[in-house]
Amino acid sequence: MKTDDRFVIEGKVLKKTYGTVTALSGIDFTARKGTITGLVGPDGAGKSTLIRIVLTLITPDSGSLCVSGCDPVKDRIKIRSRTGYMPETFSLYSDLSVEENLQFSFRIHQMDADLYTDRLERLYSFNHLKAFAKTRAGALSGGMKQKLALSCAMMHDPELLVLDEPTTGVDPLSRREFWQMLQELRDSGLSILVSTPYMDEALLCDSICLMFHGTVIDSGAPASLTASFSGTMYEITSQEENNDRITGLLHRMYPDAAVYLSGRKLHFGTSRPDTATPEPALPAGTSVRRIQPDLEDLFMMNILQRR
């Protein structure tokens, strides 16, 4: 596979099946160096499968892949030495202290012992965990555990950091602090691949790949994806307790439209321009407002119109 120096990951027509289940249906995927690239989608979208392929833990059934300029089959060890990985579930040793976990992570990568103290102090200045160096990992809060897991993944100074839904189950404040850390790492030149089911986190990425049922439904910079929307979207507020009647009316008027609940309001969108989609005439007591879609709207429209 011919590689492009702009990308830390290049995948072409990647396909992976598990028995009768298609996890990846022949997708193209790239991640630029020195950026945060997000894999965004619900459970079963194919995010974790793609991450495991990038990490050389599994091989695709077909397609080609280049990670950090290396072939995953021929250069598996080299890729692993250049990559830091943080899984979704806390996987460190709860009975070991913060510093013992960091030391263990350093040793398993067979780093030069002379580098340990400097590396440890650099990470402490980054994660602010030095005051908890002797604290058992199992006694840390959820947010602190995530900081420790991130630091362990960074202990060998990787070129690429891969994180699989790292903030699942973490409180909102800790999530924000964690993403600030990721942005600091990105600004230092590190390449980051992160999967998330949260659309608010997708907005913090430099580019995203929206995934659903093993397919890529859209990709690009979050702001560019919403700005390039050329269809029509309305927000509908009804005084009725049940929106089923309004939903049925909309589907009859516009069979190709996507209609779904967003909070307590209905969102109604089509890929047609507004000149071809006039404001729907709905019963009295119903208000209709033209809106600009956000990422969640684009995602919902894509998956509903594929059904």
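^ that was protein a. below is b, sequence first then the tokens
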Amino acid sequence: MNRTTLSLIAGTSALAAVTVFAVLDTPSASGADTARAAAQLPVERTALLCPAPSISDIADTAYTSFTPVTKGTGSAGRAELRAAPEPAGGTGGGAANSKDGKTGKDGKKAAQDAVLTPKEPGTPATGDTSGADEPALVGTADGRFAPGWTVQETTEVAAGTGRGLHGVNCTAPDTEFWFPGASTADNRTDYVHLTNPDDSAAVVDVELYGKNGAIKSAYGDGFTIPPHTSKPILLSTLTDERQSDVTVHVGVRSGRVGAAVQALDDKLGGDWLAASADPAGSLVLPGIPKDATDVRLIAFTPGGDDADLKVRLASPSGLITPAGNETLHVKSGMTTAADLGDVTRGEAGSLILTPADQAVPVVAALQVVRGKGGSQETAFIPATAPVGTRATSADNSGKGTTLSLTAPTGTATVKVTASAGSEGGTPATKTYTIRSGATQDVAAPVPSGLKGTYALTVEPVSGAPVYAARTLSATEGGIPGFTVQTLPDDRGTVAVPEAEEDVSVAQK
């Protein structure tokens, strides 16, 4: 019996089980295959994981959920976010408190009530919490709520270590993550948050790489994350070495997890550090704020070869080379950092890294500082994938949102749609042309009659690949709080091969 043909027929008939993280086998070149060109169909199930928001007692956190309206989804479906209990004997900074405070028989705090349940695609849903004991959240969406489902977690911390505005897109579970830009220095309190959405335990290794290579640790191997739970791990407890620039590698031996690094500085505020795009020879880091006072590039190559990179800034007028930082040499297995200063010089910018010679896979992130003196705040911009078919940014306000678009390799046309507001408003759409090699902070559309928050959906119309980032800003007590989220493809569709019925397979 032809195994490929059977797998294609089974894959098509079981479409209801396709998820945002599903993978279909590539058919072989045998003449018995009946697969036609793959169709792009809406995913039917999506999982998202939100880390525990803060260790501060004075933290205020908002969650915003949004699903773009997608053709071909039907009328059924739902989405919800629920608390992930902390394992019994957990480390704190992520204990899950249910509304009734009851504890289950397995020693975990119960997570009975949904924290957030969206009502309709096309309209944001919001929820909020406060304090240091708020849990990580495990989210699922199916049917019409699944394609492109996006959840933003935004936290304001008024004072103390890491004070400022923290933001993170809740992420799909995966098996490997790279975080250049973390730290074990005395002035930093960095946690890697690991959340397991599944019914079986996940086993995870956490590796640290500094300026001289792998950092020895007696505790980084084999963390067990029980089912439907989250664990924050303080990086400085994994090693006695104190280094300013560290790359964290999260590798999953069994199961899947969501991962994010919470980076908190004693003086420079803090933010979430999202995972870098997969290692690649060329990388794009979009959306550096035009008023950035200090930009630091952190890069790491996990392979066996050193990498030599050209460093260029995509400015509003095109690609330029930063004086004194024309190239970056990244030694194999070692974290390398370069201070770029106020590289944007008052203009919108994105950093473009390309091979100076042979292409060597690299991961990278930027640490960006705004403000001066005691009014400084920090955010991070990891290397990201292009927008692709569509990308979505939730939790936008009329005044505090900046949308940055860049097209490093050619001119591109992009459509941006502002959704209805969470409490009212009419959607609006604008189209922009981004010149080749340029970065543009666009005047993003705002829903007319806006009440509440809204989502921005970015869709390339024609031209070269586009990269995007959204900055949220909020000034509290003179501190210019801000956070930056990159906007890769929202993976709202999946390629499903078409297949013809072939009753002869039963006779083979």
